[in-house]
Design brief:
alpha+beta, 2 domains, 3-stranded antiparallel β-sheet, 3 helices, about 25% helix
Length: about 160
């Protein structure tokens, strides 16, 4: 992965790598203005000169920014610095749904709740005219910000890129 701990992109200080895929590298970072943890996705260096890849990256940012739903990862910012294009998104602490399923089956109630949350996120995306080019959608199980409002301590949030 291309960025090291302590590197800065605008006000975002990179802390550690989170993962990489065909269209990006994702890092845990600290927003120095708001003192919060975020996820920063960059276009990898081998794609930074590829016009089609840059257009897809920018289209992804526009599409994600149009979606506002509690079960869809929020886009906070976009930027370009030193030849690096980047997106700044909500940091979703927790495991992916696939990781959780490796531990064993979900209880029926939990399975139905997660399925409903995924469907609600997808419904919002589809009503906005957004589809996922590369199913399956990646979902992350995360702790709720305020568990006191509900008896459920987790929720599923869609984080899959490749939207259009």
């Amino acid at each position: 992965m291309g960025l090291t701990s302590g590197a800065k992109l605008g006000p975002y200080e990179i802390q550690s790598p989170l993962g990489a895929g065909g269209m990006g590298e994702v890092y845990r970072a600290r927003d120095t203005r708001l003192d919060r943890i975020v996820a920063v996705k960059i276009l990898p260096s081998h794609l930074s000169e590829n016009l089609e890849a840059k257009q897809r990256f920018n289209r992804e940012a526009r599409v994600i920014s149009a979606l506002n739903h509690s079960n869809i990862c929020t886009l906070y910012d976009v930027g370009h610095q030193g030849g690096i294009d980047y997106l700044v998104m909500e940091f979703l602490e927790g495991e992916t749904l696939a990781e959780r399923l490796r531990e064993g089956p979900l209880a029926v109630e939990q399975l139905l709740r997660y399925a409903n949350e995924i469907c609600e996120g997808l419904e919002k995306a589809h009503k906005t005219g957004v589809i996922c080019r590369r199913p399956p959608v990646k979902a992350r199980v995360r702790k709720r910000a305020s568990a006191s409002r509900t008896s459920h301590k987790t929720r599923v949030c869609l984080v899959r890129s490749g939207l259009r």
